[in-house]
Structure formats: structure tokens, C-alpha cells
Amino acid sequence: MKIVISNIRSSIDTDLNELKHLAAKKLGIGTNSILNIKIVKESIDARRKPNIRLVHSVLVEVSSNLKLTLNGDIRILEEKESSPIIPGSMKMNGRPIIIGFGPAGMFAALLLAQNGYKPLIIERGESMEKRSNIVDSFWKSKILNTETNVQFGEGGAGTFSDGKLTTRINDTRCEKVLEEFHANGAGEEILYKNKPHIGSDVLKSVVVNIRKTIESLGGEIRFNSKMTSLNIKDNVINGITINQNTQIDSNVVVLAIGHSARDTFEVLLNQGILFTPKPFSIGVRIEHPQELINNSQYGNSTNHLKLGPADYQLFYKTANRTVYSFCMCPGGIVVASSSEPDTIVTNGMSEYKRDRENANSALVVSVDPHDFESTHPLAGMHFQRMWENLAYKAGGSNYTAPVQLLGDFLSNQASKKIGCVQPSYTGDIKPTDLNLCLPDFVTSPMRESIKYFDNKIKGFGMKDAVLTGVETRTSSPVRIERSDSLEAIGFNGLYPAGEGAGYAGGIVSAAVDGLRIAEEIIRKYTPIC
């Protein structure tokens, strides 16, 4: 008999043997009665420093003849056999085409390949091996490749982040996403940590392994292949054109293009695809010494091996805005993430060990279509581009990022030099005034929030904390409207998916949306022989 026991609270030095003892005590049985034990969830409770606790949920196997008292923390695991997806009977015209190899496209392709559909993946950027070199070259030389960069290429934008696998969605498909990442090289801890992350360095090899898995199942990926138009007849998808001159026939196309594919948005809009502007957030990256965050969050337990570098999540409400931290990267760096000429875009990245000197996070403010001053379907995209271009100019018009010390930002004066926090940005920086590249309705709420955040994280308001502008790609500025069948409204066979289409907000939720799309395709069409 398998039992799930929740809310086992213990010291941060607890090992698996002690956890087994605590589980037995909670069940009211002897330790020897537990045949097997497995951690299914682990989180840190640091609310009552210095008494920091680990909180576990475990799966134990016990003899079926034991009499147990069940309650909210103890339940019998009812193992349900997953129902296979029954393939449909319609025949495909060619192979299913997946446009984009970020999380949504990757997992749509993986599930289709696992079920015999031999997908063809079209990726505008380079393979991971070449992509990493091209990105490194941009960081060093400031020569931007608009097709292969932090936003475009194998793995999508999430590859140059932290590989965070936290999500707010409650979907059983999340388990498949984590299991597939683990099967392809991510650490086992992602299966049970409350805030799992892979790390950008490890994620690169995981993505390549998933690609090879897809290829071994009959799938194919073509790099340096940008979709330049859809082939449509009578509102039915017949295929796509890539690189302006190569046509590929198919009546099933998955649009997993990511939130930064602005030129593709324009192509789709011109072809009649229905777009709706949606809210997102913009702001800056803020950097503190990681040691400061550790001390604030963990106190005397700072640097304990079980805890690792501390993170944080902050929210502050004004009358009509929300200010919050986003994509927090413990022990990470701020990365140059432009994908268009004459723009500055920032993002955060951590490697698996999270062992760099600084902690960084996006510090962003909510904006919505009322702020875009246009009713154009792509007004949010134009809004992003405007502030990115102003950041480019504020930095000197040479891909140097504008930065400002937090103390100067709060005093409304331009920075002249850097203080004790050394910026980690992967390019050049210029101390200046971030009011040059952000609107007052963003900077004012940010200033208002700092005192509140400093009460939550002691030292958050330190005057030498570094703000790097600008963070604009928190989520897609548009939603591609789709029907109950998950097809684009008015276009049979076209499936908008993931973050770029406006249906996800991170690696896991984008991957889950890709799986949902693949399931719909499988239910409708017969596999490819």
C-alpha cells in the first residue's frame, strides 16, 4: 500500500533516514514497517528565523494489512492508469510542422514523435552548439545576429535564463514536463524541489538531448529556417514558406514562435490572423550582493549546504499598478538579450550552481493596452520596441546598457559612477538616468515600492544596488485568439501555442501548452506510417 504523507517539518540537517523515522511517527507505526520512502516535495520555511525548517511530502510503501488513520496530511495514493490518447482517423497532408523550438514547440514535437507523427520542426535560429558561440560573440563584440541570439535559436529564450521550472498552473501535464527534462539530463531534484531549476549551463545539453530523442523517433529539425508566410486556401492551412523561397506542404501547423518574434507577428497579422493586445510588465534588472539576500532570508543559517543561495519574490500594489520581482536569479548574471537592431533588452541568467557574486531579478511594473496609446493589434509590441530603443540611446547607441544606482534612482538624479555592487551585465554599461528610457507611470511606482520591499528583504533598498535597463520581455504583448479546438480562429489546421501566442508564462506552462496542442492533433489525425 502506498501512502502520501504531507507537511513533515524537520530541521535543515535532516537526512532520508531521519525523514523515514518522522514519517513512521506521523503514521503511528514502526520505522521497519516502511518498506520504501521517496521524497515527492521539498520546500524551505524561513519565516521564523533562526528556526529554519524543511517541509516535506513523502511517498511511502507499507504493508497492506496495516491499519492507518487517514487525515489531511495522510492519504492513500490511488494509482490511476493514464488513459492513452486515441489517434484520430483523418489523414495528414504531409508531416505536422512545428514552427519554433522553444518549450512549447519542443514538447509538442516530442509528444507527436512519441506517438508516431514524425514532426518537422522549423527553427529560425541556430543549433545549440552554434547558438552559444554566436551569443557569446554578441556579448563581446556587440555585433547582433537578428536570427540567432538570446531570444532565437534552439531551446528558445528560456535557455539563457535560469531554467526555472516553477509554475502557478495546476495541470497533471507538468509531471510529464519534469520527467522528460530529468530523463534527458536534468537532476533528479527537479522532480521534488518546490522551486526547481535546471540552470542555463545544464539546460543547454538537456535541450540537445530532447532534440536527439525527437530525431530518433522520426522527427526532423531544420535550423536557420524562418517561416516567412503561411500558405492558406479558403481559410485552411496548406503549408508554409520558409526563407522566402521554400514551400513545405502540410495541413497541420503549430505556431510556437515565442514572445519576441515580432517580424513573424507582422507577417501573421497581414495574413489575417486575429491578434489581441494583452497586458505585460516592464522595468529593469536589479542587482544586490547575493550574500545580502542570503543573510536577510536565512540569517545565521546562511551558506548551509541544504539551503543554497537564497531567492525572493516580492509584490507591491499601488492604486492601479502592481510592482513585483520576476525571474529572480540567485547567484546569476544580467544578460544582453536584444533581438532587434538598435535596442537594449535585459534578462537574468543563473547556472546550475548559482555561485556568482550577485543576485538579480527583474523589478517590473504592470502595463496594459490603455498605456499603449494605440488600438493597433500590435500596439504592445510597438510600445516595447520604443522603450528598448530609448534604452539603446541612453546607453550611447552602441549596445551599451544604461545603469543607475538605486540611491540615485530614488533621488531622481543621474548616476556618474558605480558603487560597491559591480554590475554583472554581459556587455558594457553606462551610468546614467533610467528616466530616459522608462515612462513615469513605471518609475514612480517602482520608487514607491522600494521602502516596502526593504522591509521585506533587509538591505533591498541599499543605495549601491544596480538597476540595468530595460526589462520588457516579461511575457507576450499579444494573444493569438484560438477556438475550443485550439486552432487559430478562422484558420483550420493552424495551432498557436505557448508564450508567444499569449497562452503561457514560463518554461513549464509553455511546455504544457505544447503538449495540449499535440494531444488535440493526435486525437484528430492518424499517425504517419
Overview features:
single chain; seven-stranded mixed beta sheet; five-stranded parallel beta sheet; 27% helix
Topology readout:
Blueprint: E1 2-11, H1 16-27, E2 34-45, E3 53-62, E4 74-76, E5 97-99, H2 103-114, E6 120-122, H3 128-141, H4 173-183, H5 200-216, E7 220-222, E8 227-233, E9 236-242, E10 246-249, E11 253-255, H6 262-270, E12 275-277, E13 280-289, H7 290-298, E14 315-317, E15 322-329, E16 333-336, E17 346-349, E18 358-367, H8 379-394, E19 401-405, H9 406-411, E20 429-431, H10 440-456, E21 466-471, E22 478-480, E23 494-496, H11 507-524
Parallel strand pairs: 5-6, 5-11, 6-7, 11-23, 19-20
Antiparallel strand pairs: 1-3, 1-4, 2-3, 8-9, 9-10, 12-22, 13-18, 13-21, 14-15, 15-18, 16-17, 19-21
Give an overview in words.
- 27% of the residues lie in helices and 24% in strands.
- The two termini are 42 Å apart.
- Helix 2 (103-114) links the parallel strand 5 and strand 6.
- The strands form 6 sheets. The chain has a 7-stranded mixed sheet with strand order 14-15-18-13-21-19-20.
- It has helices at residues 16-27, 103-114, 128-141, 173-183, 200-216, 262-270, 290-298, 379-394, 406-411, 440-456, 507-524, and strands at residues 2-11, 34-45, 53-62, 74-76, 97-99, 120-122, 220-222, 227-233, 236-242, 246-249, 253-255, 275-277, 280-289, 315-317, 322-329, 333-336, 346-349, 358-367, 401-405, 429-431, 466-471, 478-480, 494-496.
- The radius of gyration is 24 Å and the shape is globular.
- The model has no long low-confidence stretch (mean pLDDT 95).
- It has 3 domains: 2-76, Alpha-Beta Plaits (2-Layer Sandwich); 97-276 and 476-524, FAD/NAD(P)-binding domain; 279-471, no CATH class.
- It is built from 11 helices and 23 strands.
- It is α+β, with helices and mostly antiparallel strands and 529 residues long.
